[in-house]
Design a protein that fits this description.
heterodimer, A: 484 residues, alpha/beta, Amidase signature (AS) enzymes, 11 strands, 38% helix, B: 95 residues, mainly alpha
């Protein structure tokens, strides 16, 4: 049952080949067997999953229920779930049980999905390897000595190991696309504002965006359809209609203009990863697409700009964790300042504290213009590069990550080396554009992701590109040894 | 941009983080490296460039000034470390 697409599972449920309870139990058994080694889940919600599945079976028997009725999924532990712990990968929220559901959680529940549990992640989504989690690193199912990527590493590993049908993720600088690439799954970061941020714990609010992580484009389309849409509770939510993503999957690609930014194929890119990307591009050419070299001249600045904007917003957002209203509180505080300082120092890990301090520094008196204002100006130049590119091309393609998954521990002592993993993904967040990672030919048995960036609101075109590639190739069908 | 121990102590205080003295040098080293990465921005001439306030150049939506949230104080305080009679408790602020 775990090797089927959502459409196949939905047919099996409708035809009563199996019930949602049986399907849910099957995935819970896989989690029980594999999670002790992978560490992909922080919380497994067996009891509530089985009761939701029983409800789904009633709806199926009555011929009602939404498009995801009875399908077992997982949520990244950054989405608030009422009554089920939401830790955000942090000791700070180890005891936090949200009093409400995030909009994304609410919408997927309304579509009928069953929640198996909450997946592991880098602490407060700050990391590219899932090693900053308070709950320990997640292992990559393709090679358990390697990282799954991050920050949505638990969701990516869980989907790749088929511990759930699909999962939610969030992407601030590549946190859906990079782990999707490193674990060999399909993930999409929609246009900024497409999915509501309400109830999604904030890291950098002008960059954060939720999206689905799945085994194939068709499954990602079904999830995104349920997740996307206007939400008055999120002040930056897009008030524009959501197209029918599933209906658009099979559109003809003849005449599609693909831009290949020369900056994404230069020094630093593993030659074997480049060869996999080129093989995928040739498949698009076979389907009638044309390829042009383009330039995004300011894209090399995206990492420096990001490490001003994201920490600045993080230092403001994480000021709310004060040991007073919820979350971790230190023992025996001697005064209010001691309460704040020790609760925060004990509750946050080293990477979160580094980013809070960088953010505090760049926003402090006398430095604002040189750092934050300068970064926001260059951000404009980066967005303008894309605007000009999309006058010539329909989509931009390149590698999602410069290498395949690296060994656990390899980059933890060097924050800057870790940051450079996201060199190809960050620009889309700074510009607010949708981006996707699609599995292509592996290198030495390790997955490689093709990144596709589209113009604003063009998630449908990205899903169409991914679907057409997956109709003609089997790169997305690989399952790691021991998980088939 | 090199930060030293005293810079880290000052920033940590502003951020309300109790950084242990033993960790100050390590943070000074890491934060300096990050600021060196960020310094690549200095090479760009941004004269006349508008700072980007929003990816889609949207402005904040307004809504009617009406109360929409019900009182849920008991539920919200159920997860607080320490409360009394509907108030959050902290160490004494005024002697």
């Amino acid at each position: 049952m775990h090797d089927k697409t959502i459409a196949e599972l939905a047919a099996g449920l409708r035809e009563r080949t199996y019930s949602s309870v049986e399907l849910t139990r099957h995935f819970l058994e896989r989690i029980a067997r594999h999670n002790p080694s992978l560490n992909a889940f922080i919380t497994v919600a067996a009891e509530s999953a089985l009761s939701a599945a029983a409800q789904a079976d009633l709806a199926l028997a009555a011929g009602t229920g939404g498009p995801l009725i009875g399908i077992p999924i997982a949520h990244k532990d950054i989405f608030c779930t009422q009554g089920l712990r939401t830790s955000c990968g942090s000791r700070m929220l180890d005891n936090f049980i949200a009093p409400y559901d995030a909009t994304v959680v609410e919408r997927l529940a309304a579509a009928g999905a069953v929640v198996l549990g909450k997946t592991n992640m880098d602490e407060f989504a700050m990391g590219s390897s899932n090693e900053t989690s308070w709950y320990g690193p997640v292992k990559n199912p393709w090679d358990q000595t390697r990282v799954p990527g991050g920050s949505s590493g638990g969701s990516a590993a869980a989907v790749a190991a088929r511990l759930c049908v699909a999962a939610t993720g969030t992407d601030t600088g590549g946190s859906i696309r990079q782990p999707a690439a490193l674990c060999g799954i399909t993930g999409i970061k929609p246009t900024y504002g497409r999915c509501s941020r309400w109830g999604m714990i904030a890291f950098a609010s002008s960059l954060d965006q939720a999206g689905p992580m799945a085994s194939c484009a068709a499954d990602a389309a079904l999830l995104l359809q349920a997740m996307a849409g206007f939400d008055p509770r999120d002040s930056t939510s897009l008030d524009t209609p959501v197209p029918d993503y599933v209906a658009g999957l099979d559109g003809d690609l003849a005449g599609l203009r693909i831009g290949l930014p020369k900056e994404y194929f230069g020094a630093g890119l593993d030659g074997r990863v480049a060869a996999s990307i080129q093989a995928a591009i040739r498949e698009y050419e076979r389907q009638g697409a044309t390829v042009v070299e383009i330039s995004l001249p300011n894209s090399p600045l995206s990492v420096p700009v990001y490490y001003v904007v994201a920490p600045a917003e993080c230092s403001s957002n994480l000021a709310r964790f004060d040991g007073v209203r919820y979350g971790h509180r230190c023992e025996n505080p001697k005064d209010l300042e001691d309460l704040y300082k020790r609760s925060r120092a004990e509750g946050f890990g080293a990477e979160v504290q580094r980013r809070i301090m960088i953010g505090t520094y760049v926003l402090s008196a006398g430095y604002y213009d040189a750092y934050y204002l300068k970064a926001q100006k260059i951000r404009h130049l980066i967005a303008d590069d894309f605007r000009r590119a999309f006058e010539q091309v329909d989509v931009i393609m390149g590698p999602t990550s410069p290498t395949t998954a690296f060994p656990i521990g390899a980059k933890m002592d060097d924050p800057v080396a870790m940051y450079l993993n996201d060199i190809y993904t960050i620009a889309a967040n700074l510009a607010g554009l949708p981006g996707m990672s699609i599995p292509v030919a592996p290198v030495d048995g390790m997955p490689v992701g093709l990144q596709v960036v589209g113009n604003y609101f063009e998630e449908g075109r990205l899903l169409n590109c991914a679907y057409r590639l997956q109709q003609q190739t089997d790169w997305h069908l690989g399952v790691p040894v021991g998980f088939d | 941009m090199a930060l030293d121990r005293s810079d880290v102590e000052k920033i940590a205080h502003l951020a309300r983080l109790a950084v242990a003295p033993a960790d100050c040098d390590r943070y000074a080293h890491d934060l300096s490296n990050i600021l060196d990465l960020v310094a690549r921005m200095d090479a760009v001439d941004t004269t006349g460039v508008e700072p980007m306030a929003h990816p889609l150049h949207m402005t904040q939506r307004l809504r009617p000034d009406l109360a929409t949230e019900p009182d849920q104080r008991d539920r919200f305080q159920a997860i607080a470390p320490q409360t009394d009679a509907g108030l959050y408790l902290v160490p004494k602020v005024i002697e």
